[in-house]
Amino acid sequence: MKFGQPTPGYFYSEVFEGEMAHARFYDEEIRKQIPKCEYRKYTISEIINGIINAGFILERFDEHPSWEDDKLPGEFTAIARKVKDI
């Protein structure tokens, strides 16, 4: 199944084909030459649980607004440190 950006539904977990993340910033002629990528979108809980399950202690998690609409979430920053074995 092929989809363009954005993906269908927040909880959609299948791999899909789409443009490189920043392709929209290039002229159309260059954009046509950029190969498509395969994506799988993750939910915030999958990302946070992945950090925890990898043995990190999550120290801070910040959400940042979308570039297109500052009323919607866009990116995030996670700061964590690795738990040392004793």
Secondary-structure map:
Elements: E1 16-18, H1 28-33, E2 37-39, H2 44-53, E3 56-65, E4 73-82
Antiparallel strand pairs: 1-2, 3-4
- Strand order of the main beta sheet, please? 1-2
Query: Given the C-alpha coordinates, what overall shape results?
Result: elongated
| Structural class based on helices, strands and sheet pairing | alpha+beta
Question: How many individual β-strands?
Answer: 4
Strand content: 25-35%
Question: What's the structural domain tally?
Answer: 2
Can you give the mean pLDDT?
88
Largest sheet: 2 strands, antiparallel
Unreliable spans: none
Distance between the termini: 47 Å
Helix-strand topology string: EHEHEE
Helix content: 10-25%
3D structure, described in words:
This protein is of the alpha+beta class. It folds into 2 domains: 12-41, no CATH class; 43-86, no CATH class. It has 2 helices and 4 strands, in the order βαβαββ. The chain has helices at residues 28-33, 44-53; strands spanning 16-18, 37-39, 56-65, 73-82. The strands form 2 sheets. Strands 1-2 form a two-stranded antiparallel ribbon. Strands 3-4 form a two-stranded antiparallel sheet. The radius of gyration is 16 Å and the shape is elongated. It starts with 15 loop residues before the first strand and ends with a strand. The model has no long low-confidence stretch (mean pLDDT 88).
